[in-house]
Design brief:
elongated; mainly alpha; 4 helices; 0% strand; 134 residues; transmembrane; membrane
């Protein structure tokens, strides 16, 4: 199978995990609002929102990827980098809520920044490919 046939399936199935996260967040804030605390709730919301929005972005990205005229290897690399960036950026928020402290950097904030870098490289690669193909 082609990368643009498999990677959208991964993204769509990942959206199910975002739905579960939304359910978990709703349960936390409706059954025991003080369970997470303001700091952890803020990072839970940020991770959840970033994951959802970026996965929808990835579906659009994967529709345009074949138009860039890349070979399969480069499509796998770009699509994989994009999905890894989504996981790293949103996952970093969740990692920070688990190990971080308010107002301080942690492994989670580093992971979030790495995810942003991966996303930027994947998006720039796609834009360059689309410009070249035009």
């Amino acid at each position: 199978m082609e990368p643009t046939e498999i990677l959208p399936i991964v993204a769509i199935l990942s959206i199910v995990t975002v739905e579960f996260g939304g359910h978990a967040l709703l349960r936390f804030i409706t059954t025991d609002p003080d369970r997470l605390g303001a700091f952890r709730e803020r990072f839970f919301r940020a991770g959840h929102a970033h994951a959802g929005v970026l996965l929808v972005l990835s579906l659009v990205y994967l529709l345009y990827l074949p138009r860039a005229g890349f070979g399969d290897g480069l499509e796998w690399a770009c699509g994989g980098m994009l999905l890894a960036g989504v996981l790293a950026q949103s996952g970093g928020f969740f990692l920070h809520l688990g190990v971080g402290q308010e107002g301080r950097r942690s492994l989670g904030t580093l992971l979030t920044r790495i995810g942003a870098l991966l996303l930027a490289v994947a998006l720039i690669a796609l834009a360059a490919g689309l410009i070249r193909a035009a």
